[in-house]
Amino acid sequence: MAPGAYTLSVAAAGFAAVTRENIAIRAGQAQRIDIALAIEAEKQEVQVSDDSARVDVNPANNASSVTISEKDLDAFSDDPDELESELTALAGPAAGPNGGQFYVDGFTVEDQLPPKNSIREIRVNQNPFSSEYDRLGYGRIEIFTKPGTNQFHGKFTADGNDFVFDTRDPFAQGEPGYHSILVTGDVSGPLTKKASFFFDFQNRNVENNAVVNAVVLDPNFNQVTLAQAISAPSSRTVLGPRIDYQLTPNNTLSVSYQYWRERQSNQGIGQFSLESQGYHVGSTQNIVRVNDTQVIGTRIVNETRFQTMQQSYVQTPLSSQPETYVLGSFIGGGSSLGVLDYHHHHYELDNDTSISLGKHFVKFGGRLRTVAEPYVSTGDFNGTYTFSSLNAYQVTERGLAQGLTPAQIAAQGGGPIQFTETAGQPFVRIFSEDTGVYVADDWRVRPNVTLSTGLRFETQNYINDHADWAPRIGIAWGLGGGANHVPKTVLRAGYGIFYDRFGQALQLQAQTLNGMNQTEYILRNPLSYPNFPTVSQLLASGAATTEYGVASSLRTPYTLQSAASLERQVTKVVSVSLTYLNSRGVHQFLTNNVNAPLPGTYNPSIPTSGTRPFPALGNIYDYESVGIFEQNQMIANFNARAAKNVTLFGFYSLNYANSDTAGPSSFPDNPYNIEQDYGRAAFGIRDKVVVGGSIALKHGFLLSPLINFQSGTPFNVTVGQDLNGSTIFNQRPAFATGSTPAADVVVTRYGNFNIAPAVGQPLIPINYGIGPNNFVMNLRISKTFTFGTRTGEHAAGDMSYGTQGVGQPGGAGGGRPGAAAGGGPGSGGLDSRGLSNTSGSGGSSGTANRRYSLTLSASGRNIFNDVNLAPPVGNLTSPLFGRSNALAGGPYSFAGTNRRIDFQAVFSF
């Protein structure tokens, strides 16, 4: 070699390459250079970034989905009940009458959500056609809790509210003072080099008000309006330890436990239900969740989850007197709900395996759920007297005061129209089981085209339908990507079948009131008021028996859903989407009296009239699956994330929905013509708008708005009578004509109605009335002060626990394996010891390098003090017909107040 300076490079398979520069080679000299090669450390990277508003063809990254984490969570309430209603509104109008579905760390949730301070991330409407899920993707809400951290962190929150800062519920008079105190906290840190912990707690004490707005009789038997607020205190305690342990470099085990205890007083009071209707509730819940995640090689992730939930619930009524139900006016006496005492045992086992196979990402797995529930119920053991109107009740009370006999009172137009009483064995037990298995494949046909296919099989016990197949398919096509294959526009389309289950509540009702365990007795026009007749007296008076059953032809209801969407990357930080959804529900549940009198054979003035299909039997309330619905929605979403300064997300939906059933507990107007009820569905709320996010202001202030709007809710107009002998008071009137007798005409601002339509006469459409619009704007403003020695820690850390091409495992953070090559939604990020690399509860973004932080905030709910009303009363015999007698529920009102101000202090380290 010629003399000079050389660069020497050495490479060998399995060893790290070595390069030495400026090696001098001299003329006529032999040189020996020793090179020590180190074993090469295989380096694999998972790129982690914030949830930017970018579109792509990954099926899990549909632009109509919303991801909420960190500061975006500040826009939502810290109260778990209000948080649930706000998230439900954010999920939008889920297809069909059953609403959305909550998941916590991959498990289905039947009751309470975890405390907000333990939530790491919330995802809404992600990957809507995945066969991994049994429920519809639109309306699905997935909550992921925080794992342990590799350094000690803690957060302690005090949140308080008092009535002196609020505006009063307009329906309440003389309301007692109320307040709420919410204290939460969490601590996390390492246990060993391979283990970390997270512990959170919550204690809530609320002095709420139950607001009654009814029409009753005063001591002189005059009709008067009763508007009052009754104290309804409640308390809740939640404890939740969690441990994450790195069994091996590729195997992480997470175990969490949640203890939940709640006490509530004066429940069941409000609107028409008077104070005597109240009951006390005591409940306790214990939940254990185990999650094991294994990375097998470089292509496979397996996740096994197990959940056991044990809940005890005791409900005790304040009064055991017979219930007095005056249609459209008030409900008094003792609560017909009676004593409830049950123990709910829920078990759930899930297993999911993800495999990366080149252009294919395959996922398969299954879930087994079982529920065992011993149940004690004395519902309606105290009996219920039903009056058709307040006028009839007024005549009755005056007649009793005058010493008139029941027959004389009835001759004057008084007396109850029905008495019901349940008797029998209060104890029953159910065992429910359902299973689902699935397989899914995301095939990257081209860099800008992904085809997603899947198949799901489901089955359950208790009903005869044991085989439900649910195919799913979706395609995403990216346009305008150029050479880098990053599309500016994505077209998506999908189709799938989604099944519902015949749930435990329906099974309990069918097994409890089956005519053997318990039987309901119904006596028309009873002459016993206000006394409590025995079963033998009822039978001697001609009472009909009533029992529940499950139709032998009952099938699992399902929804056929198709969707098409256009997603557009407007700027680097703004994306928008427009989605069309068509949903068709088949075999939807309802309850029907299959032994009601045949059409035209019943005379309302003769309670014993009518020809029944089974003359020797009474009422037979069967659960049937003969309903349908049709729904069309247009949803416009936007998502804007401008660095760390502004985050905004939201949607507008236009919704048209028709149905002939309002759910499994609803009865048709005509038992022999269910199609007569086909029309606008109660869930067919035409317009909805939700906007939320966070805005960083000068001087370190953070503004977190949340806006909810919806147009009026449809409500049904009824005559308050049983015109066909079905024993259900849901019949609708007809439109009045020139030939309608004047005594049968009711004139309202909604139209003129005939309250005694002839058999076969067309009735008014179902849900003919539309309630008022609702609007609420919530706003939180906060300021964080940081102090203490700088720690030098940053939010980002070593992300060595990934496997390129498989996706970030979800075990330790309660997440899910990624949905496509290159990573996907996963855990909070674990370092090489199995500990979280995030700052966890250690304060807001940008302050993690300080040891301590103190955040002070004020939260205004319904800051413009809009009065959001519930749907009006639809009973034509009610003195309140066409008027609302309560504030709207959900995210539009708060117990006992119209506008509410909360103050909060958060200390973090």
Q: How many whole angstroms does the radius of gyration measure?
A: 32 Å
Helix content: under 10%
Total DSSP helices? 5
For the terminal residues, how far apart are their CA atoms?
Answer: 64 Å
Question: Major beta sheet, specifics?
Answer: 22 strands, antiparallel, barrel
The total count of strands amounts to 42
User: Outline, from the CA principal axes?
Assistant: elongated
Unreliable spans are: 44-51, 792-848
Provide the structure class.
Answer: mainly beta
| Mean residue pLDDT | 87
| Percent range for β-strand residues | over 45%
Task: Give structural attributes.
909 residues; mainly beta; five-stranded mixed beta sheet; 5 helices; 42 strands; 48% strand
Describe the structure.
By secondary structure, the chain is mainly beta. Among the domains are: 1-41, no CATH class; 713-772, no CATH class. 5% of the residues lie in helices and 48% in strands. It contains 5 helices and 42 strands. It has a 22-stranded antiparallel barrel. The protein has a 5-stranded mixed sheet with strand order 3-6-7-4-5, covered by helices on one side. A 3-stranded antiparallel sheet has the order 36-38-37, with no helix packed on it. The model is unreliable at 44-51 and 792-848 (pLDDT under 50).
Secondary-structure topology with pairs:
Elements: E1 4-10, E2 18-25, E3 66-69, H1 80-90, E4 101-104, E5 107-108, E6 119-124, E7 140-145, E8 153-162, E9 167-168, E10 179-192, E11 195-217, E12 223-248, E13 251-267, E14 279-296, E15 300-317, E16 323-326, E17 330-333, E18 340-357, E19 360-377, E20 384-387, H2 390-401, H3 406-411, E21 418-424, E22 427-446, E23 449-460, E24 468-479, E25 489-499, H4 504-512, E26 518-524, H5 535-540, E27 544-550, E28 558-569, E29 574-593, E30 619-642, E31 646-659, E32 679-680, E33 687-696, E34 701-710, E35 714-715, E36 734-735, E37 745-748, E38 751-754, E39 769-770, E40 774-790, E41 850-861, E42 897-908
Parallel strand pairs: 4-7, 16-20, 27-30
Antiparallel strand pairs: 1-2, 3-6, 4-5, 6-7, 8-10, 8-42, 9-42, 10-11, 11-12, 12-13, 13-14, 14-15, 15-18, 16-17, 18-19, 19-22, 20-21, 21-26, 22-23, 23-24, 24-25, 25-28, 26-27, 28-29, 29-30, 30-31, 31-32, 31-33, 33-34, 34-40, 35-39, 36-38, 37-38, 40-41, 41-42
